[in-house]
Amino acid sequence: MSSLSNDGRMQAEEDMERVLWSPTDIEKRVVELGASISHDFSHSLPLIVIAVATGAFMFAADLVRKISLPISIEFIRVQSYGNRTESSGVAVISTELQIDIIDKHVLVIEDIIDTGTTLSRLVSYLKEKGAASVSVCALLDKVLRRKIPLQLPPGSRFYRGFECPDDFVVGYGMDFAEEYRNLPYIGLLKPAKYSAVSD
Asked: Is residue 170 predicted with pLDDT exceeding 60?
């Protein structure tokens, strides 16, 4: 159940062009992803899950509860958006890992892959830290926006929740200017809500 008040929910719904994935759609896909990950990594333990803050927090919380394996969990910040609707093209890791990943299998949980800049920087960082493999589970994948191809180390895997249209989406952890994160669905934000900031 959403924590939004009735007034807040109504305002958020008015700000949406349309809902792309409902809570039911998301839950079903998370269960499927959790089952795949549990199967694929059953002989590759220990597994370190690294969730990208802040956008992936809701997805990560739901996904790890569907992974039926012993795991360790860490959060990391990699920023490239700020209050913009497009990636700045520069990904900055603003928090260092507090967990040892040398010779361990790592699963990165991302909310969305856009140009690939953020993920490329993060994968390189984790390889430099000594990870045995760096797999990725992204809730949304904007294939049409890709500028840097997804290149994972040998033995790594890629999991995708949904292929996302080339539009600005919010909800289920994802924001615009720190708003809409607590929506239980993923929706397309009306351009009028962000055009003034983007110009």
From this structure: yes
